[in-house]
Design goal:
alpha+beta; 5-stranded mixed sheet; 15 strands; 27% strand; binds oxa(dethia)-CoA
């Protein structure tokens, strides 16, 4: 296939100022810093204040990505926000963000694929660029997942953090997103879900996260391995030819299990889980931003995720 191709031109991120460490949970729940570190790898997470707006986190992340890409906001011609925790039922957070950035007229929409949302949004942006419907797309992964947490459920509340991160995808003459694969298995919806929906002005059901942790652990690990291998296959490369592995940050044990199965050394695996926890759609771009200084032109970056749905995916990017 010929160009235009889509290439990641800039990355930016934003975290809420407030950090909460594991000891906080041990004060009121039957848990401990030791259990959380050992079973998840999480040490602390950033949590947004109760009245915080997702758009207020997404805007500075987007502005940093726009600056890093060397473009101006008025050059952005598509905005896609991956989130499960939008500020409103509608309009989309992408529309609110468009206004906050002072951008006018371009398509703006949200994508909801929970922890895999960033890769789904990236795929939409890549397809728009390949189809010449965009030449400079802003892709944001942002979640205030703490909105969906039952603070008395020790098996889930210790896992999540809040954050936002963005990339600018630009049209390029050479391949940038080299390979991409997405999937979903709706029959596993109930193992990780936040039920509840609005009806006639009321909220029906409890809008908090419930998870069968072990089932998700098993299925997510398998899905990320298969997706990563499929993407390597598409690109006709072996996992050990990849420079950076940027996984969704759900559990250090999952990150390590996938890396081991792919046969890659831990020096290539980007892990931010200790500091961020699971930030859902923001997780991959936040991790990507954390290696901004170390990444070089020509590096191959494999991103992979799995989350509620069950959704999964992987994308291989070549650094321009
Ligand atoms: O981002 C979307 C994808 N999400 C994921 O990929 C998450 C996948 N799942 C996981 O990361 C893990 O399953 C968890 C971290 C959620 C749980 O770890 P686990 O090793 O699978 O624990 P478990 O659910 O098998 O529970 C083991 C024990 C249980 O006690 P009993 O029944 O053995 O007495 C739990 O009640 O650990 C208990 N437990 C806790 N103990 C202390 C569960 N949560 C806690 C806690 N502190 N916070």
């Amino acid at each position: 296939m010929n160009g235009p191709y889509a290439s990641i031109a800039g990355v930016g991120s934003e975290l809420p100022a407030r950090q909460v460490d594991n000891h906080h949970f041990a004060k009121y729940l039957d848990t401990s810093d030791e259990w959380i570190r050992k079973r998840t790898g999480i040490v602390r997470r950033h949590l947004a204040d109760k009245d915080a707006k997702l758009c207020d986190l997404a805007r500075p992340a987007a502005q940093k990505a726009i600056a890093a890409a060397g473009v101006t906001a008025d050059q952005i011609d598509a905005i896609i926000v991956a989130t499960t925790t939008p500020d409103r039922i509608f309009p989309a957070t992408a529309c609110l963000l468009q206004d906050a950035l002072g951008v006018q007229g371009c398509p703006a929409f949200d994508v909801q694929a929970v922890c895999c949302g960033f890769l789904y949004a990236l795929s939409c942006g890549e397809a728009m660029i390949r189809a010449e419907r965009s030449s400079c797309a802003l892709i944001v992964g942002a979640d205030i997942f703490s909105r969906l947490v039952d603070w008395n459920d020790r098996s889930t509340c210790i896992l999540f953090g809040d954050g936002a991160a963005a990339v600018v995808l630009k049209a390029a003459a050479n391949p940038g997103i080299v390979a991409l694969q997405l999937g979903a298995q709706g029959s596993s919806a109930d193992i990780l879900t936040a039920e509840g929906h609005p009806q006639r002005g009321e909220f029906c059901g409890k809008p908090v996260t419930r998870m069968d942790g072990q089932s998700v652990f098993t299925l997510a690990t398998r899905a990320m391995i298969e997706s990563s291998l499929a993407v390597c296959d598409q690109a006709a490369i072996k996992p050990d030819e990849i420079d950076w592995f940027v996984p969704h940050q759900a559990n250090q044990r999952i990150i390590s299990a996938v890396a081991q199965r792919l046969g890659i050394g831990k020096e290539k695996v980007v892990a931010t889980i200790a500091e961020h926890g699971n930030t859902s759609a923001a997780s991959i771009p936040l991790a990507l931003d954390s290696i901004g200084e170390q990444i070089k032109s020509g590096d191959r970056v494999l991103m992979y995720a799995a989350g509620g749905g069950l959704t999964w995916g992987a994308a291989l990017a070549l650094v321009p």
